[in-house]
């Protein structure tokens, strides 16, 4: 019955997404609304028992690899060489710029309120990452193509890596402040490089098979089977190598697909993308509903000044950081003007990071309440704003339906 209720939730989410397109809104907004409305805090078609069940989390891991697969197809060496260091520099300016601005603003605010200044860096560490699934959903739905799209998708991958490094460094420093148990420093590179290493071997095997296959059904069967195999490989590594941390399955999927995408011809890669697109739609739909389900809409009503400060300072950091980096590296003008608008989606990553930082602050319940309330409300409000702003960014860049 739980599986049936989950499937009915996905069907409702799909239909609500279709309704959103009728009023010229992105489908992802409908999926988010459905996740919140049918999740455990509202109608509970998807109760907490589903979200906590092993089978559900296994499916989400497989779908995360599936979402990462599409991001990896953008990491083609020949394409990346066109931007070279410009892509890396702009990633650093927008991510580290966001971290510094949000940390500074909250540190100043907290200094006047008697709250530890170092808590501001927790907000900065949470703020710098970008959620890749919403951005990918918009590019797929509106068939965007151009310099902004070509920059955004690989940047979302690099942004995740920078986010992991900065956040877990901040988390370790905060743990020393509150004398809580902390992840050792050496585990930070493990969290980054282990998912990449896990995806390499399955990706190489897949690339060899795809080089000899031409039939669409055969290609799709190989892709889907190897997504499952790659996820299983990740589960085994997590259980026996890193049982104390959660691996990033999106990053595993990115590594997996980057390898085989660089082994096949451009024509074969375009065929793979076209064949895989319907499966990607299912993966994105399920992932976005999963992001919306844990969100408590009551938090929107109680959102206070911290939430407003967080949303505004993060948006300022993302936009100005992206514009500064793109301008200094002489990326195309549309990238300089509009890339920052497409970097605002955030909720999935922010909620994961919030859970980790709150566990670190468990000895300080007042601080936990500040972080949880602010980020949870911001995740809901920001995601609706961010999706609309991202769509507008692609529209202003002239990349819609291109």
Record keyword descriptors for this entry:
mainly alpha; 18 helices; 402 residues
Folded structure, characterized:
The protein has helices at residues 2-22, 27-38, 48-52, 54-72, 77-83, 85-111, 119-127, 132-141, 147-178, 187-211, 216-240, 249-261, 266-292, 298-301, 305-328, 333-338, 347-360, 365-396. The protein is an all-alpha fold and 402 residues long. The model has no long low-confidence stretch (mean pLDDT 85).
Terminus-to-terminus distance? 43 Å
Main sheet specs: none
Which shape, going by the Cα principal axes? globular
Strand content: under 5%
The helix content is over 70%
Q: Regions with pLDDT < 50 over 5+ consecutive residues?
A: none
Q: How many H/I helical runs?
A: 18
Rg value: 20 Å
Order of helices and strands: HHHHHHHHHHHHHHHHHH
The helix/strand class is mainly alpha
- Please provide the count of β strands: 0
In brief, what are we looking at here?
With 402 residues, the chain is mainly alpha-helical. Helices cover 78% and strands 0% of the residues.
